[in-house]
Amino acid sequence: MIFTWRTVQRKTTRSALLFTLRSASILFLVAALVSPFLVLYNEEEQILFLADRSASTSSTSEEIDAFIEQSLRSKKVDQTVGLYSFAGDFRTDASLTKEQVRIPEVESLGEVGDTDIEKALSLANAIGSQESAKRIVLLTDGLQTRGDALSYLEKSTDSRVQIDVAQLNHQTFPDAALTKLDVPRTAYAGQQQLMTIEVNASDRTTGTLHLYQDDRPLGEESIELIPGENQFTYPLPAVDAGLVKYEAKLVVENDHFLENNRMFAAVTVQGQPSVLVVETDDHPSVIPGLLDQNTLNVVTLQAKDLPSTLSGYLPYQAIIFDNVPGTVVGEEKMALIEQTVKNFGTGFMMTGGTDSFGLGGYFKTPIETLLPVEMEVKGKEELPSLGLVITMDRSGSMSGSKLALAREAAARSVDLLREKDTFGFTAFDDSIWEVVPVGPLDDKKDVTEKILSVPAAGGTNIFPSVAKAYEDLADLSLQRKHVILLTDGQSPMPAGYLEIIEEAKSNNTTLSTVGIGSDADQSLLEAMAVAGGGRYYGVSDESTVPAILSRETITMTRTYIEDDPFYMKLGNIAEWNELFAKGIPQMNAYIATTAKQTADVAAISPKEDPILAEWKYGLGRTVAFTSDSSGKWSGELAAWEKYPEFWNTAMTRILPSYSSAPYVLTQSAGGKFTITDTSGEAAFLEVSAVTESGEEIDVMEDQTSPGKTNISLEAAPGLVYISVTDDQNRLFETGVTIPYGEEYRPKEPNEDLLAAIAKETGGRVLNNPKEAFRSLPYRGEERRSITTWLLLGSLLLFFADITLRRFSRFAPVVRKKLTVNGLETGGQTSVTELLKQKRKR
Fold it and tell me: Sign of the CA dihedral 365, 371, 375, 378?
């Protein structure tokens, strides 16, 4: 700009003014590009109390509250305060405010088994105004089990946050903890094994060790403990093939942490395969007597006694459901079986009968998911017209899982109906709520959404809703009319209610009842079902409700039993074709199903319904045989000389075909493990992990070298089953313990960490609670941008410059014109005056 000014030849006042305006405009614009700001000081101070509520500080709640309460008495008017709690998670107890704060009654946090100081500080830093000065008062024992608080602070760039620490001096309680449960990872059937248990005790004491195998007691022993490590060894009884679960439980009087008193282990026992045949009292199975007992270990179990944990199924290499109703099994146990097949290669087979497949209530269940057939029959002949009304108790006692499962059950019934069927849904408490009026089922999606939105409320008055259902169905011309009542309670009934039900039955309207839980009036509901010509279901396991409603709906909507004698037509599976090479016996009946798209159908009926179908599901194989095993439906097949061979062939189709893998699994810390392939043959591994409750866990895999893979499991403490497969068709199964965290190991507070945190941020280790509200050594800063003002100034100066330049061009012209006009006027005046003077002469 200086150079430009020096090159100007004529430096006038006008040119100087224009140059100044243009230069100022450019300078303002350049200044705006660097985003300048003004710094305004903020006098507000924010004080955040961050209280450690983890398990290791469980005895210090009163100490924490007393410290905060004393500190609050010193709060200044211009200071804001907030109260927060943390463990593995974070919670706001009282939001930032300038008002007086009272300490609320706090509940336990969700993740008390961990202490994450880094996460707590990070979240606390983000609270409130970032321009104000802030002090975090950290009340903790410093025993962090997650994160690294000091590393986080060293990387932090916020210099206006000061952290004071108040050390929590929790009491030292006597504690004894299981630290090791060691059994061989693999063994052979009949081989005796040794279990090694280690216990760490803080004091000399006595206790009792309880040992379990597959949730069954093995024994117990009184033990004496000395301070430090204590080791005990026990011989284990020989077992059959399968994955066997062991558990050790320690009971010590006045033990502080109960969470560290249980450990688990699992052993893969190799030997003769075990097959579980599931039956009911109504339909005893003939299959155990047909299987080869020399090569198979066959176990028979009642459906009502099925295990409720994953470990109850893993000892078996195959499971057979022989005409077992889903209404007895329940969806929770079905889900465990589905995980056993999918992730651990267990085979599964279902046979037909009056209580199986669709008639057993397996529609949209985990069992249907793993089978090669669907329960719903598609593409069949015209079915009878149907009217179905479901009346559901929605009283307060139905809240929670009862109502959720009842709604899901009703929604499944809607899926089984055709759109031209008549449907209605009524919810009742003290009064009736007609959720879906009785009428044609035009929009299944809308009806399902309405059903799933019903909340729980009110008391229980049963019969008005049933009477309304009868009234709505009475005048409809339908071939089948049915009412389903679900309730968990009791209710007074009007006089003559059974006569009303019987009259409705005579008018082709039947009634089935479902009593959920022990509080339901079972005698009343059973009497109603008998009078209504339907069925009564007394439910102790509420997870069976969806199967019950599916069964009821299927029974009403379709004739699933095909009972015309027939001969199977074979498919293209060599093993089955070879079995029937010399002829196919005649059969009497089967349950109609639909083969899934990728299923291998070994035999079909003349109507092209699957009789024998199989497929691979996850790591396991499953078979569906839609006729029965007893001979009532299977006819001449059951009398055939090769009938035992039929069932043994089925077993060869579903038993795992994997070979044993030479893997070694070692545990490092927490949920971290290393899997080593000692043969060095595997190119890749596929790892699955499932908890005892059947929940799949995400597995983080990291192959560090050929034949060695590190895995990490994010799971709660307890037993986790691991399945490993490779490209060599090998399978390795085991169970591992996710140990209790360091939070449950008695330790002294980490004074060094607390002092380092305070030093890093210029804070203090507080002994006096009043110091928490001392003035901060710096003020908050608020930055106000002036970019907009600079741009506006540049724009105004630019327009001023343009305006002056434009209008200054016309100034000389105006002046010249004014001069010329003046001369012309003056000339004319002079001539006139001369002429006047000449005349006078």
Answer: positive
Q: What is the mean pLDDT of residues 654-682?
A: 78
Strands 216-225, 318-322: pairing kind: unpaired
- The predicted model gives 425-450 an average pLDDT of 91
Instruction: Tell me if residue 838 falls in helix, strand or coil.
Output: helix
Q: Which of 361, 366, 276, 374 is nearest to 326 (CA)?
A: 361
Q: How confident is the model at residue 5 (pLDDT cuts 50, 70, 90)?
A: low
Q: Quickly state the pLDDT bin for 612 (edges 50, 70, 90).
A: very high
Extract the tokens encoding 561.
Answer: 């039993």
Strands 699-705 and 663-667: unpaired
Topology, domain 41-172+746-783: Rossmann fold (3.40.50)
Rounded average pLDDT over 331-360: 92
CA torsion, points 752, 754, 759, 761, in degrees to nearest 10?
Answer: 150
613 neighbors 375 (Cβ within 8 angstroms):
no
The correct answer on CATH 2.60.40.10 for the domain covering 176-270 is yes
Class assignment of domain 274-376+561-654? alpha beta
Strand 620-625 relative to strand 610-617, pairing? antiparallel
Where do the domains of the chain lie?
Answer: 41-172+746-783, 176-270, 274-376+561-654, 386-557, 659-736
CA distance 384 to 401: 34
| 472-490 burial: b if 16+ Cβ within 10 Å, else e | bbeeeebebbbbbbbbbbe
Question: Do residues 346 and 656 touch, judged by C-beta distance below 8 A?
Answer: yes
Classify 659-736 by CATH class: mainly beta
Tell me, what DSSP letter sits at residue 568? -
CA distances from 472 to 435, 443, 530 (A): 14, 19, 21
Q: In angstroms, what is the C-alpha Rg of the chain?
A: 42
Please state the rounded mean pLDDT for residues 33-54: 79
Question: At what angle are helices 810-840 and 787-808 packed, to 10 degrees?
Answer: 30
Joined together, the tokens standing for residue 626 give: 């839609």
Q: Indicate the residue type of 195.
A: M
Integer CA distances (angstroms), 98 to 46, 75, 79, 595, in order = 9, 9, 6, 69
Cα separation of 685 and 688, whole Å?
10
What's the farthest any 2 CA atoms get from each other in the chain?
169
Residues 772 and 598: their CA atoms lie apart, in Å, by 69
What is the pTM for the complete model shown?
A: 0.71
Report d(CA 471, CA 463) in Å as an integer. Answer: 12
The sign one gets for the Cα dihedral 659, 660, 666, 672 is positive
Strand order from edge to edge, sheet including 386-393? 432-440, 422-428, 386-393, 480-487, 509-516, 533-539
Tally Cβ neighbours within 10 Å of residue 803. Answer: 11
Structure tokens at 71: 């500190």
- What CA–CA distance (Å, rounded) separates 8 from 816? 26
**How far, in whole angstroms, is CA 481 from its chain's centroid?**
40
Q: Residue 189 pLDDT more than 80? A: no
Fold match between domain 41-172+746-783 and domain 386-557: yes
| Average of per-residue pLDDT values in the chain | 85
DSSP state of 740: P
Smallest CA-to-CA distance from 373 within 382, 384, 362, 383 is with 362
Can you list the pairs that 755-761 forms with residues at least 24 positions away whose Cβ atoms lie under 8 Å? Answer: 755/165, 756/150, 757/117, 757/138, 757/149, 757/150, 757/153, 757/163, 757/165, 758/163, 758/164, 758/165, 760/150, 760/153, 760/154, 760/163, 761/153, 761/161, 761/162, 761/163
Instruction: List all residues 6 or more positions away from 354 whose beta carbon is below 8 Å from its beta carbon.
Output: 323, 561
C-beta of residue 187 within 8 angstroms of C-beta of residue 267: yes
CATH of 386-557, one of 3.40.605.10, 3.30.2270.10, 3.40.1830.10, 3.40.50.410: 3.40.50.410
**224 bridge partner residues:** 206
